[in-house]
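stage 2 :: seqdesign
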C-alpha cells in the first residue's frame, strides 16, 4: 500500500482522542483529529478519509446530526463512539448510516478490530460507492472532488460542486428546488429558493455555455434534471 489509510477521529475528549490517535498511528494509520461536530463534518466532506470515528456527544453539532448530513454526500465508513449504551441510540445510529458502534469505555483491541473490519468491508465492497459520475462528457470524481468537461478541468466552488454532484447522482430524475435546498444547502440555509436558480446559472455558465452542451434541463414549475442524451 503506497499511502497510509487515513482515519478521521471526531472526539471532544482531547485525552481520549490523543490516546486513540497514538494507538492508530502505531498500527500504521494516518490520523486527523477534530474536537467539534462542525469541524469534523467540514473535514469529512472535504474527502480523502478511509474511515471516520465519530463520537455522539459533541459540541456545536452532535454526532448523529453530523452523520445524517454526511450520509447525504459520502459513503465513507463511520464507527460511532459513545458513552451511551442504550439500544435505541445504537439503532438510531445504524439507521442513520453508521457502519458500527463502540461503547465507551472500550478496550483499544476491540476498537482496532472494528476498524480493521470496517476497512475490509470498504475495500471488499467498493461497488456500493460510485466514485465517478458522468453525463455528456462531463465527469465528476467524488473522492478527488474534481470536474472535467470534454477532458478539460472545470473550476467549481464547493457549492457548485455539491449541486452538480447531487444532480448527477440523480441523473434522469427531476429534482425539485426544495430537494436541492435540503440536500445541497442543508437545513441551516434560510434564503429564498432563487438561490438554486442562481447557482444553476453559475453551473450553466461554466459548463453548458463554455462547452456548448445541454447538460442541465429546466422542468418548468418543478425543478431541474440532468439527461445523458
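stage 2 :: out
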Amino acid at each position: 500500500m503506497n499511502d497510509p489509510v487515513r482515519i478521521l477521529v471526531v472526539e471532544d475528549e482531547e485525552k481520549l482522542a490523543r490516546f486513540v490517535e497514538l494507538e492508530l498511528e502505531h498500527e500504521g494509520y494516518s490520523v486527523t483529529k477534530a474536537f467539534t461536530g462542525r469541524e469534523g463534518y467540514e473535514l469529512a466532506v472535504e474527502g480523502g478519509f478511509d474511515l471516520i470515528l465519530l463520537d455522539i456527544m459533541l459540541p456545536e453539532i452532535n454526532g448523529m446530526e453530523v452523520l445524517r448530513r454526511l450520509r447525504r454526500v459520502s459513503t465513507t465508513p463511520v464507527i460511532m463512539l459513545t458513552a451511551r449504551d442504550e439500544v435505541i441510540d445504537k439503532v438510531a445510529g445504524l439507521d442513520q448510516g453508521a457502519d458500527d458502534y463502540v461503547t465507551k469505555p472500550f478496550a483499544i483491541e476491540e476498537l482496532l478490530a472494528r476498524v480493521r473490519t470496517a476497512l475490509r468491508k470498504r475495500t471488499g465492497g467498493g461497488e456500493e460507492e460510485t466514485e465517478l459520475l458522468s453525463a455528456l462528457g462531463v465527469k465528476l470524481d467524488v473522492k478527488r472532488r474534481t470536474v472535467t468537461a470534454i477532458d478539460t478541468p472545470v473550476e467549481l466552488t464547493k457549492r457548485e460542486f455539491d449541486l452538480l454532484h447531487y444532480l448527477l447522482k440523480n441523473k434522469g430524475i427531476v429534482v425539485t428546488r426544495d430537494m436541492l435546498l435540503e440536500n445541497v444547502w442543508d437545513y441551516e440555509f434560510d434564503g429564498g429558493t432563487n438561490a438554486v436558480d442562481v447557482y444553476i446559472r453559475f453551473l450553466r455558465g461554466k459548463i453548458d455555455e463554455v462547452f456548448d452542451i445541454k447538460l442541465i434541463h429546466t422542468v418548468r414549475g418543478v425543478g431541474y434534471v440532468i439527461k445523458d442524451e
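stage 3 :: structure notes
- The CA atoms of residues 134 and 140 lie 6 Å apart.
- The first strand starts at residue 6 and ends at 10.
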